[in-house]
Amino acid sequence: MDIRPALESDLPELLALESQSFHSDRISRRSFRRWLRHHDRVFLLAVDQGQALGYALVTLRRGTRLARLYSLAVAPQSRGRGVAGALLKAVEQGARDAGALYLRLEVASDNQPAINLYRKLGYQQFGCYEDYYEDHGSALRMEKCIRPYAPGGDSRTLPWLAQTTAFTCGPAALMMAMAGLPGGYRPSPEDEIQLWREATTVFMTSGHGGCHPLGLALAAHRRGFASEAWINIEGPLFLEGVRDENKKRVMRIAHRQFVEQCAAARIPVRHADIDQGQLTERFQAGANILILISTYRLDNMKAPHWVVLSGFDESCLYVHDPDLGDTHPRQAADAQRSALDCQHLPIARDSFNAMSRFGSSRLRAVVIVEAGPGTAPTPAPAT
């Protein structure tokens, strides 16, 4: 048995393997062709004397240290020969060589042979998707650290939520942060839109306005939480992405109102950089933290985007990303993500420094949310 990279000329064999292995949720010819040409993946084929035995496809999340086993298939007549295990070990090495720290996967909850294989190779279950497949079957969520790092500081319960529009990453991130603190806050679609209405900058580039850090801090304060904002520049934000002078005028007014309202509410606003040490210290002390990033390293879009810190270790910071990709019309179906791809994303610390600055102004913005008066924060254990 030889394991080699899959080639475009292997497309007929890949389609045959797919047809023999799966009754539903099959990868289409178009999707196979796309993945064969894609850069952010590890795609391997097992062959024996010219006959295709099986394939494994792993996708890599740009800008992060996370990989995902997208599909693994072995021809029925080749099962029992160790093909699946050999392919899995090979794609793990490929993902490791690409810099990934973790490999995640979904497997049908009734596919006991596959579950046994994954457990034998060191994968651990950390969740379950109900009604995941076309036949309404559920899927177990499994993960393996493929590099010898032990994540820490993320043992608190921090829920993950998806944004429901292309412009509500800020509200979704804030709902995660508030729901992960004492106080009994319950997220809802209605509050997602209400939070956006309270925190929006009104305009941003050519689309709907995004959320201002001071607006998010105010929204948390109104819901009974203690909040604090760190912004490394003074003055109105995001103006560089807007050409229309009247829009800029409105954004300056909105910024001035946010500043005045924060002062009236006695919300601390610090015009300084906050470093990774300070972020992790506040996280360990019980705060949940929203961080503004540029999506350039994730999708080449250079858009401002809010995420939530979910943990850290010596090599990475981990974040919950509310963006599944399906709210963006230009996002190809094959590039859309599962919830598994968006939780506890491992981002290397050196990459994080660059990712957490936006635009030519090098804007860095953080909103820290803590339990309000009368509630006791629950600190994460020291690492």
From TrEMBL:
Keyword list, A-Z: Acyltransferase, Transferase
GO-annotated molecular function = acyltransferase activity, transferring groups other than amino-acyl groups
* Residue stretches making up the N-acetyltransferase domain: 1-147
Q: By its UniProt entry, which Pfam families does this protein fall under?
A: Acetyltransf_1, DUF3335
Q: Does the keyword Transferase apply?
A: yes
InterPro entries, per this entry? Acyl_CoA_acyltransferase, Bact_Acetyltransf, DUF3335, GNAT_dom
This one is known as: GNAT family N-acetyltransferase/peptidase C39 family protein
